[in-house]
Amino acid sequence: MATPPGSVDELRRIAPDLAPSIAKLTVPAYILDRNAIVRWLNKAAVDQFGDLRGKRASHVVAPEDADRARREFAGKLLGTIEATDATADLRTADGRTVRVDISSTQLVDHGAVVGVFGLADPIDLPDLSAAKSLDLTPRQLDVLRHLAAGHSTDRIAQTLGIAQATVRNHVRGILTGLEVHTKLEAVIRAHELGLV
Question: Does the model's pTM come out above 0.70?
Fold first, then answer.
């Protein structure tokens, strides 16, 4: 009989020391092996994304985020990156795309990296009809949310996995779309429109 997804028994086989703690998380949590195959999901992840055990993580990552996700995963396996925080679009069990904040880290057993453990916390997105009418792209909305949180160009670039020049281009597009002249005005206008 197959072990049900997200069970403590399944998790104990994969990560015995973490099992009691991470099985209780209410945020979608996952473990990938060294081949980026989903080996464990908690109940919240199964509810949101379906039972992906045995499938590649790329199965749920939106194409525009796939390259960055592969680079970050490889960096963790090689030991050049210990942990990352990023925003990405993932496909849900019912075929929708949902924006999530992903926080992931190396999963180490006896000094060897055996996989990646992560959380994929869905972001409560505001009504985007105003953004569409202003011709703001999804990536510009990402940048706008980071601006509203007070993040620097450098931090936005690092978090989104894009160049600083690309962030500046998105900021110019945001200023034009919102018909404002400064980042502060953009944040104020975004709050007025319910975009952040």
Answer: no
